[in-house]
Amino acid sequence: MEIFYVEDDEDIARSTKIYLENQGCQVSIFTTIREAKTALLACCPSLVLIDWNMPDGHGSTLCRWIRENRKKLPVIFLTVRGDSRDIVDGFSCGADDYVVKPFAFEILFSRIQAVVRRTGDTSVRYLSCDGILLDRESMHVTYGEEEVLLSPSEYRLLLLLLENKGRTLKREQILESLWDADGNFVNDNTLTVTLKRLREKLHQPACIKTVRSIGYRMEETVCRIENR
User: Where does a domain end: 120, 148, 167?
Assistant: First the structure.
């Protein structure tokens, strides 16, 4: 699981990160809500842990933003005490669970596992690269916070590139994988035109690379915030 942990207490964040990574998770720490939003626009983790009191706002603000932009992304909020007002506020903004500080790492991890089992791993549902996000379930595509309307062939091409992110696909491979709505084989010129239109709609993203005389590759070019 990939986990985004929004926490401004460096000691708690570091020790929690070490424990969760020893359980096989990949953890990225963000010390402000602004940092977390930037990262969430670029990619989608399996789950987000949110501390309720952040230096640039309340955790509920980020939770509501997630529900507006990443509807199915699981959220667990962390509160310093079991205050019923915090708990009610947390669930009203769309959180899936809460854990009271100080917490035992084992309890936190068991809550994470339970939430992901119940909601499913959304990192499988969402495919992303450089701020381009494709939702397999709804078939919606966004770039940052902008919805991008694609034709069926453009969508299938983007899906294929994202599913093979980091790999070079030969033109022949792409042509064999893409069919039009009537099951007709897509020719080489159609692929060129479709890719050109896809790039235009995505504002000429640097992440779609042309590998001369071979094919195409999608890869991250935007540096993510370094894990602390």
Answer: 120
201 closest CA partner among 160, 150, 163, 156: 150
Same-domain check for residues 211 and 151:
yes
Task: Give per-residue pLDDT as tens, 80-113.
Answer: 765 556 566 666 788 999 999 889 999 999 999 9
Closest CA to 78 of 105, 116, 113: 105
- Establish if 209 belongs to a structural domain: yes
- Could you tell me whether strands 97-100 and 2-6 are parallel, antiparallel, or unpaired per DSSP bridges? unpaired
CATH number at residue 109: 3.40.50.2300
Task: Identify each DSSP E strand in 94-191 by its residue range.
Answer: 97-100, 126-129, 132-135, 140-143, 146-148, 168-170
Average pLDDT, the chain: 87
202-225: per-residue pLDDT in tens? Answer: 999 999 999 998 999 999 886 554
Specify the DSSP class assigned to residue 130. T
Long-range contacts of 175-183 (CB under 8 A, 24+ apart): 178/153, 180/152, 180/153, 181/152
Give dist(CA 6, CA 187) in Å, integer: 47
Question: Considering the entire predicted model, what is its pTM?
Answer: 0.77
Contact 55, 61 (CB under 8 A): no
Sheet containing 215-218: give its strands across.
Answer: 168-170, 215-218, 208-211
